[in-house]
Design brief:
The chain is of the alpha+beta class and about 100 residues long. About 25% of the residues lie in helices and about 30% in strands.
């Protein structure tokens, strides 16, 4: 049985109204529920912080599964930066999504 623990050393306290969530899973564990478990822990932490109102994520424009995953959780797309990255010589867009958790 797997479990998740969010660890901060020293304990983090928030002074900002937004936090950036970054989750990147190895391909061998994708589809096993780790993404949902990790985001649930991260969102619980964000909701426990008195000043955080939004959680932001960024996904590659070509990663429709990540985009769909976050939208199903209530994240809304708010910006796309075209051709922000070059990955193996190919253009890649960056898409910003946000979830309002308070207010």
């Amino acid at each position: 049985r797997a479990s998740l623990t969010l660890v901060h050393r020293p304990v983090m306290t928030s002074t900002l109204d937004r936090c950036l969530l970054i989750i990147d899973l190895e391909s061998c564990v994708r589809g096993e529920g780790w993404d949902t478990g990790l985001i649930e822990v991260a969102l619980a932490w964000a909701r426990s912080q008195p000043t955080i109102e939004y959680v932001d994520v960024f996904v590659l424009g070509s990663d429709s599964s990540a985009h769909d995953f976050y939208q199903k959780l209530g994240f809304e797309e708010n910006a796309t930066v075209r051709d922000l990255f070059r990955i193996f010589g190919l253009s890649a867009d960056d898409v910003a999504l946000s979830l309002k958790i308070k207010g």
